[in-house]
From TrEMBL:
Organism of origin: Planotetraspora silvatica
Keyword annotations: Membrane, Transmembrane, Transmembrane helix
Stated name of the protein: Succinate dehydrogenase
Membrane-spanning parts: 27-50, 87-110, 150-171, 177-199
Phylogenetic classification of the source organism: Bacteria, Bacillati, Actinomycetota, Actinomycetes, Streptosporangiales
Length: 266
């Protein structure tokens, strides 16, 4: 009878290493850059929520849209509505920021990113993690990640509202159509990137035709699935591009509102 040793390929025991990894490259660079990128988004988001300069006709900052409180300026209210009153004096952005925030937080790509960069679980391939146990997403709080599909539905609504804001940016401060400023271009570019990121979501790909057994019987859904799959192949790139585009667009509007940017065609 053949005995199984620790070096045998049939052994159930892992190789015991005295070092964290045998990799000699800069494996730490990607998680470090990811950590810096995500932290910059979080820090900016906290500042933007409490900043009150979010509207400069015809632009509204994406982090504060849709503006649904009575404290919103008349021109900033989405469809003229203010169903939430003054919301106890809290910033209007708090009413809706959790919707796109929840979508990104539960996004498959972002989960991989912050698991590796914040929790080091694991920080990189072939690098051991500091945690002794692994339960995946089977218990609280990570089991909540399963609500990602429902955040997708809400994110589609927010994306449509940002596209609506981009269309309104073609008006001037008097409401006349035909205005094209730098802010218009920035808001349009942001709306496109947000749409590409949202529609490239894995949940969207599954919803369009993920459960079909015969594509030939559903040609329209197959075409939609094909389009979404192309976006999904670049989901990581759209995730980063849209994250920074919404920050840039938001900051630009706030700087215009503060008077920091006041050049012609702003």
């Amino acid at each position: 009878m053949t005995q199984t040793t620790a070096e045998s390929p049939t052994s159930k025991q892992r190789a015991q290493l005295k070092v964290r990894t045998l990799r000699t490259d800069r494996w730490w660079l990607v998680p470090a850059l990811t950590f810096a990128g995500l932290m910059s988004f979080l820090i900016y988001g906290v500042w933007a929520i409490f900043d009150k300069s979010y509207f400069a006709e015809p632009y509204i900052a994406p982090f504060s849209s849709p503006c649904l409180a009575t404290s919103c300026p008349e021109g900033a209210r989405f469809l003229g509505l203010a169903p939430f009153g003054d919301w106890y004096g809290l910033p209007p952005g708090l009413l809706i920021l959790g919707l796109p925030g929840g979508f990104r937080l539960t996004c498959y790509y972002y989960r991989k990113s912050y698991y590796r960069s914040f929790w080091l679980s694991p920080p990189a391939c072939a690098v051991s993690e500091p945690h002794k146990k692994y339960s995946g997403e089977t218990r609280l709080p990570l089991i909540i990640q399963n609500v990602h599909r429902y955040f997708f539905y809400l994110a589609v609504v927010i994306g449509a509202i940002l596209a609506y804001d981009a269309v309104l940016a073609f008006r001037d401060e008097h409401g006349n159509w035909g205005h094209v400023g730098l802010g218009t271009i920035i808001l349009v570019a942001n709306a496109v990137l947000i749409a590409c990121y949202t529609l490239g979501c894995h949940s969207c790909r599954h919803i369009t035709a993920g459960r079909l057994n015969h594509f030939s019987r559903h040609p329209i859904r197959y075409k939609a699935w094909t389009f979404v799959s192309k976006l999904n192949a670049r989901h990581q790139q759209f995730a980063w591009a849209s994250m920074y585009s919404v920050m840039i667009a938001d900051l630009y509007v706030r700087l215009v509102a503060k008077g920091v940017i006041n050049f012609p065609f702003a």
